[in-house]
Each structure stands twice: as C-alpha cells, then as structure tokens.
Specification:
alpha/beta; 47% helix; single chain; Rossmann fold
C-alpha cells in the first residue's frame, strides 16, 4: 500500500505529464530553464532556437530524463521558421499543447539608446524579435490549438512591460506590446478554449541581459566577472523583496504553473515575478 501511495505522489508531481510544448529561444538562459522544468514535469519539448549547437547539446543532455526533446532551427523574425517549428512539434509528438514565446533581445551592445541618438534600425530589430516574433508564435500556435479546442500560450515579458525607466525605449516599448498582445489574443482565443498569458520577471542574470554590459566595459580593465557582480549588486539593491535573488528557475516555475491545469481558468494575465518591484513607487523608497 505504501508503494502505491509513493507512485501516485510521484505521478501527481509531474504537472505537465503527456503535454507537448514548443519553446522559442529554448537553448539558453530563461528558455533553457523552462525546457528543463517542462521535461522534469513530464512534457515532450521542442526546442526552437538559432543556437543550433547549444540547443542540440541541451537535447542530448536531457535524453535520459522522463520527457522527450527535439530541436529545430528557428529565427522568430522569419514567419516561415516559426510555422515550420510548430509543424515540427506536431509531426514529432502528435500535437501542440503549450507554446512558450521566450525568444527575445535587447539593444545591440554599445548601441546608443537615448532618444536623440537611437538608430531606428536598432529599434526595429528589437521589435522584430520581441513583438513580431511573439505574435508569429501566437498565430501559428493558434492554428493548431483552435481545432483542438484547447491549448496554452505563454510569452516572456518583463517589468519593462509595466513601468518605464528600467530599460531602453525599444525594449520597454516592445515588452509593453507583449502585454497588449497577450490580452488581445486571450480575448479572441478564449472562445476556443485556449489560454494566453505572459510572465514578467525582474532582472535575471542571463547572457542576454549581461552581454551589453560586458561589451560596454570591454577594454576598460574591468573583468567580465566584476561586471556580472556589479549587475547582481545593482539589482539586489533596487529590489523590493530582500533576501532572495531572482533566478531563471523562478521564472520557469511561473511558466510551468501557467501551462498546467492548476491555472486552467487563468487567461489574459501578466504574472509578475518581480518581488513586488512594480507594485510600489520606488522613487519614494529613499524616505522609507
């Protein structure tokens, strides 16, 4: 009897057992953590990324895990790539239950981000990935999910999608757009049983967030390790919730929740994983 109870408990812990997911930008950073968490919870995962070798290595590393993984090259700024990625997931695993629009970018290293000096081609590049790429993912996931009358779409947003002044104009505008698209698409797809949400984390130390800072200090005599340490201290000092450092796993856990049946009546939501950062007026904290 004890053995049966243990087995049931183990099965219950796999919140995505039998689900099929596609994660764009899934080879590294937050995306990699999402892929690993999905596999841990029993999902079959298609990793879509432009980092071919890194993505293949990740899939090979997960071969012995409970879930199954597959890789396809995908540049989210090319709609045909996104279409092929969705079709690949369906061909490999039979369906698509979860679409995670995680691929994103910031302004190029050393690019001017002040409004007078900002190159509009750089602005367009950020929007191509962060907005157009997300919408392409929503569009082609919906193509599969609408006939099935079920499905979940989760996009990775940011605190910059809620407040101004913590990111560049291009990045902030793009993440505000993701929130708007999430609500708009949720309004349409709800009648088909498809849930659409996004997750907005506070600053997470990933390659994407750190590379512009490292490039900016290149040649200044400051080591990459010192830049990363400064980045972490800066985020820690400005955080509202103290004693906890946000990690990629925390973001992945939020995505797992929204993708699971535990969130079966949650749609059109922007789930903040920011330790309360956007719920207060930080300019007044000096007087607290």
């Amino acid at each position: 009897m004890a053995s049966t109870s243990s087995t049931n408990s183990s099965s219950f812990s796999k919140r995505l057992l039998g689900k099929v997911a596609l994660v764009t930008g899934g080879a590294s950073g937050i995306g990699e953590s999402i892929v690993r968490s999905f596999v841990k919870h029993g999902a079959k995962v298609c990793v879509a990324d432009i980092q071919d070798d890194v993505a293949r290595h990740l899939c090979e590393a997960l071969l012995d895990d409970v879930g199954s993984t597959s890789f396809i090259h995908c540049d989210v700024t090319i709609e045909d790539d996104v279409k092929r990625a969705v079709d690949h997931a369906v061909a490999e695993f039979g369906t698509l239950d979860i679409m995670v629009n995680n691929a994103g970018r910031t302004d190029p290293p050393r690019a001017r981000t002040d409004i007078c000096g900002l190159d509009l081609s750089s602005f367009d590049g950020v929007f191509d990935v962060n907005v157009r790429g997300v919408f392409a993912g929503m569009k082609h996931a919906a193509r599969v999910m609408i006939p099935a009358k079920k499905g979940v779409i989760v996009s990775i947003c940011s605190v910059s999608g809620v407040v101004g002044g913590v990111g560049s104009h291009a990045y902030t505008g793009s993440k505000h757009a993701v929130v708007g698209l999430t609500r708009s698409v949720a309004a349409e797809l709800g009648r088909h049983g498809v849930r659409v949400n996004c997750v907005s984390p506070y600053g997470v130390p990933t390659k994407m967030s750190l590379s512009p800072l490292i490039a900016r200090h290149g040649g200044s005599g400051i080591s990459d390790e010192d830049v990363i340490a400064r980045h972490r201290r800066m985020h820690a000092s400005n955080a509202v919730l103290q004693g906890v450092e946000l990690a990629v796993e925390d973001v992945a856990n939020a995505v797992v929740f929204l993708s699971s049946d535990e969130a079966r009546y949650v749609s059109g939501e922007n789930l903040m994983v920011d330790g309360g950062f956007t719920s207060v007026n930080n300019s007044f904290r000096l007087f607290g």
